[in-house]
Design a protein that fits this description.
The protein is an alpha+beta fold. The protein is built from 13 helices and 26 strands. The chain has a six-stranded mixed β-sheet, covered by helices on one side. Strands 3-2-1-14-15 form a five-stranded mixed β-sheet, sandwiched between helices. Strands 4-5-6-8-7 form a five-stranded mixed β-barrel. Helix 8 (295-317) packs parallel to helix 9. It is globular and about 80 Å long.
């Protein structure tokens, strides 16, 4: 199966769209200047042990101490958490979840090292095989014959068709890498310090595609060269035009749709997706779909269609944590099982671990999906500063990205951009941003409480300055 990845790096945000059969399956987005920690391994220092929480707080060098729970510590049988973890000690930890808000990053001592074929765990003690592999027992036996002591393995679907000897070479390479990192705990050096850094954002996200064939379309020649070296089996195409790649492939509109609450199904049914701090709630409705046979059949068809789309929306929006799905009520128990099975089948394609727990007593389907990155809503929207309710609008990062995308289609000397007073921009960062653009920018504040921006005029510097003066607009930066 071939996956097409559109990779845009020309704007403030690095954006990747994963397409399959011409449909967007996922968006991966990161600020160019963002610093992320997931996957990094540190020699940290235990700052505080909280017995009542069965947890410790560890300094890994960031603004906030990391959180290490008892369940994430490798303990011998009958060993107590407070016997293994003490204040002041050095400890080797890996970041499993980014910091968010007031919470520091989540840590684990069950460190892992991965390649395209294998995930190696020095301390897990188990061997697992991808569900997509046909000869599961053969590969499981192979894995169990390779591991030593407390080691563990996850054999990915990409090993299918490979020789066991080549997979073994991968495991040996990862084992040596792990031994070097683990040895850093006893080595001299400052504490805290990073001893293993994850791959860069683009490389990491490409690996998540997990497809037999990859077609990568990029807007940077440097990125093309780098990806050709990292993924020699992939087709890498350099494409740079006046418009951004996301505009050329009509992905900007798809991204906008992924930020909206309502998703329309092909039949006329709909999903309403509400993302809150505690959980995500998805409501399924027949809406405009009336069906052609019985009401029960109409409900079943809508729910089956919704199950497929829900799985896609989880990937598309990168929704994580607790997810409750309110399918349309089905009186027939067998119909409910069909919908659950459809949801399970569709979520198996998700590279992020997703568990389906079935119907609750209230008739809701309970799902959990591992939180690895911020959702699109958390990354690109912000709470309404006026009503303080569920209102959301584009944040500063998304606004700048939209402006850059629009400016790429022009080759003029200057532009006048009007910004909403609801958006808060740092002066120093904005001055730097203006310098990076290939056009003279004049920024003023708009009079309306609009959450976006307006490109008021574009042309020569003289024309733009004249228009601003005529409108008596005041400069922001």
């Amino acid at each position: 199966m071939t996956a097409k990845l559109i990779i845009e790096t020309a704007t403030n945000l690095h954006k990747i769209a994963h397409l399959q059969d011409s449909q967007v399956q996922a968006f991966y987005i990161e600020e160019q200047k963002a610093i992320h920690y997931v996957g990094n391994i540190y020699v940290g220092r235990v700052k505080k042990v909280v017995k009542g929480m069965d947890a410790a707080f560890v300094d890994i060098g960031g603004d906030k101490n990391g959180y290490l729970h008892k369940s994430e510590v490798f303990l011998d049988e009958h060993e107590m958490f407070t016997e293994r973890i003490k204040e002041g000690q050095k400890i080797l930890v890996q970041v499993s979840k980014e910091e968010r808000g007031t919470k520091g990053p989540k840590l684990t001592t069950f460190i892992e090292f991965s390649s395209s074929y294998v995930v190696y765990f020095p301390y897990s003690g188990y061997v697992a095989v991808s569900k997509k592999i046909a000869e599961k027992e053969k590969w499981k036996s192979f894995g169990e014959s390779i591991v030593e002591g407390t080691e563990g393995l996850l054999l990915r679907s990409a090993i299918e068709g490979m020789s066991p000897s080549k997979v073994e070479q991968e495991i040996v390479t990862l084992r040596k890498e792990a031994e070097g990192v683990i040895g850093e705990l006893q080595a001299e050096g400052t504490v805290p310090r990073v001893v293993y850094q994850r791959e860069d954002f683009i490389t990491n996200m490409i690996k998540k595609a997990k497809m037999d064939k990859l077609e990568l379309i990029v807007d940077s020649f440097e990125t093309k060269k780098k990806l050709q070296a990292s993924f020699p089996e992939a087709t890498v195409i350099f494409q740079r035009e006046k418009e951004s790649l996301f505009d050329i492939y009509h992905l900007q509109k798809e991204l906008e749709k992924a930020l909206q609450k309502t998703v329309w199904l092909p039949s006329g049914g709909s999903l309403v997706i509400e993302e809150t701090e505690a959980m995500t709630v998805i409501d399924v409705n027949t809406s405009r779909f009336v069906g052609k046979t019985s009401q029960a059949q109409t409900v079943l068809e809508t729910n089956l269609e919704a199950a497929k789309e829900v799985a896609r929306q989880l990937r598309l929006r990168n929704l994580g944590g607790i997810i409750m799905i309110d399918f349309i009520n089905m009186k027939n128990k067998e119909d409910g099982e069909k919908v659950l099975q459809k949801l399970k089948t569709e979520t198996e394609q998700d590279p992020v671990r997703t568990l389906i727990f079935g119907f609750t007593r209230l008739g809701l389907v309970e799902v959990t999906r591992k939180k690895e990155r911020d959702s699109l809503q958390h990354l690109l929207l912000k709470d309404c500063g006026v009503c303080k309710t569920m209102g959301k609008y584009k944040n500063e990062k998304k606004t700048l990205d939209d402006i850059e995308g629009e400016l790429l289609s022009y080759k003029e000397e200057a532009a006048w951009i009007e910004l909403s007073p609801l958006l808060s921009f740092n002066r120093e960062e904005m001055e730097k941003w203006k310098e990076e653009q290939g056009i003279e920018l004049y920024l003023t504040e708009g009079g309306e409480l609009t959450p976006f921006y307006r490109l008021r005029h574009i042309g020569s510097r003289e024309e733009v300055e004249k228009r601003i003066k005529e409108n008596k607009a005041e400069f922001l930066f």
